[in-house]
Amino acid sequence: MSETPQTFEEWWVGSHYRKFVQQEGLPLYEESYLENLATLPLAEWERRGGKAAYTRLGDQEIVNLQVVEIPPKGELAPEKHMYESVMYVMSGTGATMIWQEGEPRKTIEWAEGALLAIPLNAWHQEFNSSGDKPCRFFFGTSMAQAINQYHNFDFIFNNPFVFRDRYSYAMEDYHVKDRHWNLRLSETNFIPDIRKLTLDAWGEKGTRTSIMRLHMGNTDSQIHVLEVGEGTYVTAHRHGAGAHVIVIDGQGYELLFNPGDENNPARHRKVPIKPYGVVSPRLNEYHQHFNTGKGPFRQLAFKGWTASPATSTSKGDYDPVGAARSNNPHGYAYKLRYDKEAPSVREEYYRELEKNGVDLRLEPIDQGAK
Ligand SMILES: [Fe+2]
Predict the structure, then answer these.
(1) In CATH terms, is domain 14-157 a member of 3.40.50.720?
(2) Quick one: pLDDT at residue 325?
(3) How far apart are alpha carbons 321 and 185 in whole angstroms?
(4) Whole-angstrom distance, CA of residue 40 vs CA of residue 31
(5) Which CATH architecture best describes the domain 196-356?
(6) In this structure, which residues have their CB less than 5 angstroms from ion ligand 1?
(7) Distance 331 CA to ligand 1 centre (A)
(8) Which of 133, 161, 175, 340 is placed for a possible disulfide with 190 were both Cys, Cβ 3.0 to 4.6 Å?
(9) Are 200 and 214 in contact (CB under 8 A)?
(10) Cα 287 to ligand 1 centroid, rounded to whole Å
């Protein structure tokens, strides 16, 4: 790295994020779907201990996942970094210590279902509290974006700046904050089990669908928890790349297809979804969630850390309808209404429900509508 490059091959860096993952000596998973983060093969992680892997899903480097496992009685080395990070626990029990330089430490205990914001550039360290079981979690992060922007690992991981506006020990309610600011919008930093989080109805997205958008870590994080009721599926939609949808409860399948293939079911890709699968559509790739189980289907989504054009109007006002609003095929997000989808989509859903003995709970649609 210190030597002056002599050839194009030596000089060219396709992606500083890829280079970082190589330096970490960890696997990088690509594509737009991974069947199960809980069983994804990981490699020994020299820098922090435990095992880990990275993702580069949906052909983008805006949001990524860092999947981590700590062996029984194990711990990771502390770190801090100039990128946003939110932790979700898939299995096991443990704790995260969080602190700013020169301040006392806070310990947050967690188990499956917990969602915890890691404040920007604050120290954090994770521990497995079990003597006989590993624990596994992932961080949804803006690491790829930050590394590509600054491409200086020392700046990212060894930066002395303390963001006291994001977190300080003096913020006594930080880890219990649960402020429901507006319809479908809350501010929080720690939720012990998002599988039980109360959501707001989102009829514009689909029948018996509900959502809660979460701003975490004193940022404009675009994170949400979405639930699709039993016997229901949501409308297909598409938008920019970077969204990661992680299934946290229930079962079903996902349809992925490209614009132009709306009425060509042979080109619809159908993948099973159950905890802890992840779908991360490519730019404008349609995606559509189908609940085929008994009980609700729930997912956690990461869409980045900057204000989303889907939830703020051109004047910057909050729009609770969000990505379900758009009927404009050239807009940021586009929703394919139930009555515009290929008739086979619903027919196939009937068959899947029948196999599982679940009743359809959707209004009939007029497939001939304009
Ligand atoms: Fe989406």
Answers:
(1) no
(2) 73
(3) 11
(4) 14
(5) Sandwich (2.60)
(6) 243
(7) 14
(8) 175
(9) no
(10) 7
